[in-house]
Write a structure and sequence with these properties.
By secondary structure, the protein is an alpha/beta fold. It has helices at 21-35, 47-54, 58-70, 107-121, 140-154, 171-175, 201-214, 234-246, 263-284, 298-308, 321-327, 358-374, and strands at 74-77, 81-84, 91-97, 128-134, 159-165, 183-186, 197-199, 219-225, 250-256, 290-293, 334-340, 352-356, 383-385, 388-389.
């Protein structure tokens, strides 16, 4: 009786010790497919056969097959076996973004998406693409349209995984994103939605205070222009811990309260709060040495207030006429802001920048998603991406 399928070929895929066995098996099988040794519709050896041929464990074989399936090179048919696909499917990664793509405060998210696109489309087989969706933090009608479009796309495009850049999304908004696909999520963590990658805000507070103190600043004020005021505030914790460790004589945390997540609200809140602070410092003749700001867009408002009041701002430390008249500390007020590498702003005053790398964030997100798609072991989560202080102030 003629069998419905030819016998599975004996393949030369003996693994060595240079790299993980499942990656070697995946690479060798992929090369056999690309060279035509394994042709479209050919049935692959069974798991037991591959274990013998490769001299590897069943776990390694399973992980290799899962990776080949994720790449669209093979397909598994219940009770029939695993076969080489006649034509590799296109594969899509969905990028879901909390803020709208055109929002001014979303510059960092746009930069992360740019580097994610490079990672995805730069994969060796050239069959991957990404689809981007922004505005999940918008009004309810806008969200309804966005979810409808996403649901329609999910039924038409071969999505293999999702990356969520949640921004200021609420727990309820995140809960609506119910997908069974592998997901990698950029924080912060929210109720019911743990982050895989987060910006190390604690390090921002800690390292910035140490940098300022190392440059002679003893009185430091931290101006937070953030909507999130409750729960875990790692930037505040880092600021306080560094101040205690260095035994600084005077530190203060002030909260500017934006009315919304857009850039104009953030700038306005920071401008008004800075004017209030300047008037208080001038009245008491008790200026700080440094002002830390939680956001580079908010720093526009801070800079405008300082210029309007004629305050001396000089991270270089030289004296000025304005400072001698009581409009600032003797060496000029040092301003430091949280910022993003490669995203430049014109402040009109010298500003030190603690910069995060969007490229590093994108790389970490992609690696985690890829490990989930391919069934590889994950690193300890969440991955914390640190920034660094630039010694050169920007204007």
């Amino acid at each position: 009786m003629k069998t419905p399928y030819p016998a599975s070929p004996t393949l030369q895929i003996r693994v060595q010790t240079a790299q993980p066995a499942h990656l070697q098996i995946e690479r060798m099988l992929r090369e056999q497919i690309e060279k035509g040794v394994l042709r479209p519709a050919d049935r692959l050896p069974t798991t037991d056969e591959l274990v013998v041929q490769a001299g590897a464990s069943r776990m390694a074989v399973h992980r290799a097959m899962k990776l080949l399936e994720a790449k669209g090179l093979i397909e598994r048919k219940p009770r029939r076996g695993t076969f080489v696909k006649a034509q590799a499917d296109k594969a899509a990664i969905g990028i879901l973004m909390g803020p709208a793509l055109m929002d001014e405060p979303a510059q960092f998210q746009r930069a992360v998406i740019h580097f994610l696109n490079q990672e995805i489309t730069g994969l060796p087989d050239r069959r991957w693409t990404c689809r981007i969706y922004g505005g999940f933090t918008g009004a309810e009608p806008q969200q309804a349209v966005l979810f409808a479009n996403l649901a329609a796309d999910m039924s038409h495009y071969p999505f293999k995984g999702l990356i969520q850049i949640v921004g200021d999304m609420t727990a309820q908004q995140v809960a609506k994103l119910k997908f069974t696909l592998p997901i990698a999520r950029l924080g912060p963590s929210l109720e019911g939605a743990d982050a895989d990658v987060i910006l190390d805000l604690h390090h921002f507070g800690w390292d910035s205070v140490h940098h300022l103190a190392g440059n002679g600043c003893k009185k430091i004020v931290y101006l937070r222009a953030r909507i999130r005021l409750k729960g875990e505030l790692p930037d505040v914790d880092g600021f306080k811990q560094a101040a205690r460790a260095l035994q600084l004589p005077s530190t203060e945390i002030c909260q500017a309260r934006p009315q919304g997540v857009n850039g104009a609200s953030m700038e306005k809140a920071a401008f008004e709060k800075t004017l209030e602070l300047i008037d208080d410092w001038t009245r008491k003749k008790n200026w700080p040495d440094a002002l830390m700001v939680s956001d580079d867009i908010a720093t526009h408002g801070v800079a405008l207030a300082l210029v309007q009041r004629g305050a001396a701002v000089n991270p270089g430390g030289s004296t000025s006429a304005a400072s001698r008249q009581g409009k600032g500390p003797s060496k000029g007020l040092t301003v430091l802001t949280m910022a993003n590498e490669g995203i430049e702003h014109h402040y009109g005053i010298p500003v030190l920048r603690y910069e995060y790398s969007p490229k590093k964030v994108a790389s970490e997100l992609f690696q985690i998603l890829w490990k989930r798609i391919s069934g590889e072991n994950l690193p300890e989560l969440p991955v914390r991406v640190k920034g660094r202080v630039h010694a050169q102030a920007e204007r």
